[in-house]
Amino acid sequence: MELTAGNIWILLSTALVLLMTPALGLFYGGMTRAKASLNMIMMSFVSAGIVGIVWVLWGYSMTGGEGIMGLFGNPFASFGLTNLAGTDLIKAGYSATFAMLTVALISGAVADRAKFTAWVVFVPLWITAVYCPLAFMVWGGGLMSQGGAVTAAFGQVIDFAGGTVVEISSGSAALVLALIVGKRHGFGKDPGHRPHNVPFIMLGAALLWFGWFGFNAGAATTAEQAGLIWINTLVAPAAALLSWLVTEKVRHGHPTSLGAASGAVAGLVAITPSCANISPLAAVGLGLVAGFACAMFVELKYKFGFDDSLDVVGVHLGAGLVGTLALGFIALPVDGAGGGLLYGGGFQQLIAQTAATLITLGLSVLMTAVIGIAIHKTIGFRVSHEDEVTGVDLSEHAETAYDFGALGHGHFHPLPQHLDPVATASQEAPVPSAATEAVEAGAVSVEEPEKVSA
């Protein structure tokens, strides 16, 4: 079989999307305390490793083929992908990178306090019970696909690249997991919880934006569609970035680097479901709305008291809802018919988008609660208070991201099996001063916790 330009574009897009998961690790890693940054990055990396195996064994099979009650595909239809070849394998690889990123997004809600082993158990269960069924329902011929039961009842759902499957599912799962695991010690009070490495955040956001062109445009089927997706993926995050900065300036007096990174990601999330179905001008408007809305959403955790550590809920759930529901207003007509309310298409598209949103929320919240509570009640999802104070890099991985001299080892910390990381660190390191403790925690001189974060 000849390798076509379309095949090459999907292969390239797969590489771009694969880059997004380690980029997310950098983005999240910079937002945590110094003594938890490696753990945060590791949660993204291990997600890619686990999902890659799950996808070959049964994950990809569950997202297509003959469905079971319109909910998911037969897990054994292409078990091991042994019956696939050529373009089918290319598509399997491309779809795997979406699943890797989606579950990795959730990890930001439990930063600084989750057991790594618990996360390793959570990832394959969540992918199997939540992501794969949603991918089948929306893209694989299930309930929300063309000809599905939900489509027949409410109209055709539009979700080109994952507003429901990726963003709303991960954002709502993040909220549930944050509630199950509980708040960090010092949440909302300890300035040490501020991001320890803003350049990491900016670099991670830049790489995410870069990879998002493959995320959105990888499935384009024509040059016209690819061009529309490309420009929309460029301008929506640009508008959201500016909107977030203006919101910060008006509300808090200073536009921040963290706000710029957060705004860009919010715009990327918002354009994901609609990238092929709205005009560039509408994409600018969507970005402006998403940037402002998410800058407000991230502050809800302080008002309602849930510790969404790295604002997965505020950005991914918030912008995912904005982008998905906005299609009910700004979706372009197809062949002169349909479209959103602003194009005279009536309420049909808004109804379809609302139905898809509610189904996604229901499935993700329910299954995440079942999985999260089961893990929390058995092996435990949260580290001990002592390990959280020491830092999960050392307690969970026997490593530290930075060499602070007397405070710890900067690279690998070899341990005999009969010694734990905390005990070894206390034996080898002299008692640190208050100043060095502040450096280790990533603290900065501030009067109050951040009001807008990413």
List keywords for this structure.
single chain, mainly alpha, globular, 1% strand, 17 helices, two-stranded antiparallel sheet, 2 strands, 454 residues
How does this structure look, described?
The chain is mostly helical and 454 residues long. Helices cover 63% and strands 1% of the residues. It contains 17 helices and two strands. The chain has helices at 5-31, 37-62, 87-106, 116-139, 149-154, 163-181, 198-217, 223-252, 257-271, 280-297, 300-304, 312-330, 348-378, 385-390, 392-397, 421-428, 434-441, and strands at residues 67-68, 72-73. The chain has a two-stranded antiparallel ribbon. β1 (67-68) and β2 form a beta hairpin. α3 (87-106) crosses α4 (116-139), α7 (198-217) runs antiparallel to α8 and α10 (280-297) packs antiparallel against α12 (312-330). The chain is globular. The N and C termini lie far apart (45 Å). Mean pLDDT is 90; it is low at 407-454.
Q: Report helical residue fraction.
A: 55-70%
- Percentage beta strand: under 5%
Distance between the termini: 45 Å
Annotation, overall tally of beta strands:
2
Main sheet record: 2 strands, antiparallel
Instruction: Describe the global form.
Output: globular
The Cα radius of gyration reads 22 Å
Low-confidence stretches: 407-454
Number of helices: 17
- The side-by-side strand order for the widest beta sheet comes to 1-2
Structural classification: mainly alpha
Q: Can you write the helix and strand succession as a string?
A: HHEEHHHHHHHHHHHHHHH
